[in-house]
Specification:
With 514 residues, this protein is of the alpha/beta class. It contains 18 helices and 24 strands. Helices cover 43% and strands 15% of the residues. Helix 6 packs parallel to helix 8. The longest helix has 22 residues.
Length: 514
Amino acid sequence: MAKRTRGGGRAGNTRRTSTSAIDQMPWRNIKNLDRPTEPLDEGGVYAIHKAAMHILSEIGIKMLNPEALVVLEAAGCKIVEDTVFFDEEMVMEMISKAPAEYTITPRNPERKIHIGGNNLVFGNVSSPPNYWDLETGKKPGTFKSFSDLMKLTQYFNCIHVAGGYPVEPIDVHASVRHLHCLQEKLLLTDKVVHAYSLGRERVDDVMEMVRIAGGLTDDEFDATPRMYTNINSVSPLVHDYPMLDGAMRLARRAQPVVVTPFTLAGAMAPVTMSGAVSLSIAEGLAAIVLLQLVNPGCPVAIGTFTSNVDMKSGAPAFGTPEYIRATQMTGQMGRFYGLPIRSSGVCTANVPDGQAMWETSNSLWAAVQSGTNVVYHAAGWLEGGLIASPEKFIMDCEVLQMIQRYMEPAIIKTRPEDLALDAIAEVGPQGHYFGVQHTQDRYETAFYSPIVSDWSNYESWELNGAAWTAQRAHKIFKDILDEFTPPLMDESIKEELAEFVDRRKAEGGAPTDF
C-alpha cells in the first residue's frame, strides 16, 4: 500500500501537518482489477443492440437543434420535421471513430485522469438546488455552500473530478453564475473541471477560462482534452437545443462529451430493464453519432442513469436492485460499442443515514461491477439529487477510499513474502501474529485505515461522546474548512482570469432564456 498523505489543497496533496483533519490515502488514478459483472449473455447483448437500432431507424430521435439537423441530413440521415432516423450501418461506422481511451489534463498535470479501459475515476456531487448540514438543515444553495463543497472536492484525494456545481448558488444571478462559479472553482481546485452545456456563452466562457487557468494557447487547448461536459437527453427520445449546441462546441475543440440519457423505468422509459436500457442506448448513440460527424475521433463517453420510480408515488428511486442491473447491462453495451462508460453514486435518502449509505454503496459498487470509467455524484448526493451535504460527502469518501484500497494490487499478490510461510511456521499452532517480524514490518500499512468510521467498542465509543457517523463527519468538515489551503496559481494568471470574468460580466454574461 502506498504511503498515506494528510489532507491539504496544495498541488499533489503532499503537504503534511500535525493538525490535519484526516490522514487520507494518496491521490492516484485507480485501475479496476476485477472482471466486470455481465448479466447479459451474447444473445441478450445482441437483443438490446437490435432494439436500440430499431428505435434509431424506425421510431427516430427528435433533435431540437437546427444545426444538428443540417449535419445529420448531410450525412444521409432521413429527417421528418425534427425527428431523425439513423441507419444502423452509419451508426456503427461513426461510433467506431470514437476513442476507447483518452486522458484529460487539467491546469495541474499531476491531476490528469485517464478515461476508458479499466480506469476508474470519481467525481463530486453536481447540480442539487439545495444544501443540508447538521447545523443548518435543508436550505437553498448559496455561493458559500458552493465554495465549501468545492473545498471538499479539492481536499479529498479520492475525488478526481471537480464536476458541475456541487450545489447551485441561487444567490448569484443565472446570467453570470457560470463566471463566478468557474472562477472560484479554478482558484480552489486544480482538478479536471466541467462546463454545463447550456448555450454558446456558458460553454465558450468556460473553455476560455480553463485555457487561461492552464496558461495555454488556443492551439495547446485544442490539442488535447482539458475539460469536459455532460449532456442529458430529454427522455423519451428527445435531445434539446442548448445541450446539443454546447456538445458540438466542445466536440469541435476535441474536448470530451459524456452523453447520459436520464431514463427512469416506469416513467420516462419502459418498466422493464431491458426496454429502459435499450431506449437509453438509442438516445446516447444518437448524440454520439452527431458528435463524430462534427469532429471524427472526438472523445466521448456513454452514460447510464437508468433506474426505476416508486410506483406508489412516481418519485425516482436509486440504489435499487433494478438500478444495479441496469448499470451492469449498460456497462456491457458500452464495451460492445467500444465506448468509455459513465454511471453515478446516487441515493434517494433525505439525510445521511443508513438508507443513504446502503443505497449509495449499491450504486458505487454497481459502477465498479459494470466496468464504469467515470462515476458522477460519487460523494455528497441526497434526496434523489435535490440535496448536497458535506457530511454525506465525507461519508461517501470513506466508501470511495475503501474501493481504492480494494483495487490495490498489493492485496492479492502471491510472492513468497505475501504467502508468509516462514511466519506461519514461526507462530505454529495456537500462537498469534502480533509480535512476529513479518507483522511488525507491515502493520502500519497492512490494512485500510478509516477516516470517519469508528472501530472502537461500544463502551469506548460512549466514553468518547457517543457521536453518530454524521456527527463525526460534520466535525471533519469543519476541520477541513479550517485548514484548507487553495492550490497554487500564478498571480498573472489569476489577474487574467479576473479580467476576463469582469469583462464578461460587464457584457451581460449569458442569456437566461433559450
